Amino acid sequence: MANTLLKVTGLKVAYGGIQAVKGVDFEVQEGELVTLIGSNGAGKTTTMKAITGTLPPSDGDIEYLGKSIKGKGPWDLVKQGLAMVPEGRGVFTRMTITENLQMGAYIRRDKAAIKDDMERVFTIFPRLRERKDQLAGTMSGGEQQMLAMGRALMSRPRVLLLDEPSMGLSPIMVDKIFEVVRDVYAQGVTVLLVEQNASRALSIANRGYVMESGVITMTGEAKALLSDPKVRAAYLGEAA
After folding, report:
1. What is the pLDDT along the chain (240 residues), one digit of tens a residue?
2. Domain count, the chain
3. pTM more than 0.85
4. Is 167 domain-assigned?
């Protein structure tokens, strides 16, 4: 039986007086690539912020490795192997690419392995190697997305959370980002991917959850959701 790494139960999150997430249940098992899809404003990013401790839930629970992590901060979670690439990338703009990657490994003390992982990131993203001494703030959006993903990988995550990694990128860069997500997953990292680009997300995922107005409205195998007429009509622009 698969080991459940992340389990969200009855999660509710409020912004001011607005209930953005209204009682969400989902889980991610070890070795899965799970996607949470939905339109802008569905509550996907709010859910991710609650999981990673940057936004307090008003109700429900979040379990990681069988224990509640509700109220834990991002620092604690990264140490436990739960890393997130946030929407908007969040790179350190006044630091170089190399310094940003080093920040991803700040919880680690294994210097030789850190050096090996830096080399691995540069292999995945050759453009980062070419510009390793460049300030992150002078990079394009796509390059910053590569850097944000590389920085998260430097923490050696067991579960990688990706929040809208393709947002605002050119088609070529979107192809690259999804290729990397697939490769990272193939190397044994469990992935939870939040995406507006439903067709691309479902094409690489094992399972999917559809979120609308703060609730999960559909769930199933990714291939089944990709061929579902309701999903195709709502997110892929096809007639029902």
Report:
1. 579 999 999 999 998 788 999 999 999 999 999 999 998 889 999 999 999 998 999 999 999 999 999 988 888 899 999 999 988 768 999 999 999 999 999 888 898 999 999 999 999 999 999 999 999 999 998 899 999 999 999 999 999 999 999 988 999 999 999 999 999 999 899 999 999 889 999 999 999 999 999 999 999 999 999 999 999 888 776 554
2. 1
3. yes
4. yes
In sequence order, what DSSP letters do the residues of 63-102 get, joined into one string?
Answer: EETTEE-TT--HHHHHHTTEEEE-TT----TTSBHHHHHH
Give CA–CA dist 137/119, Å, rounded.
22
Separation CA 212–CA 200 (nearest Å): 18
The enclosing domain of 80 has a CATH number of 3.40.50.300
Pull the structure tokens for residue 174: 């979107």
Helix (H, G, I), strand (E, B) or coil at 210: strand
Domain annotation covers residue 240: no
Domain of residue 221: give its range. 4-235
Taking each continuous run of H as one helix and of E as one strand, the counts in the chain are: 10, 10
Q: Are 25 and 63 in contact (CB under 8 A)?
A: no
- Integer Cα distance of 28 and 15 in angstroms: 25
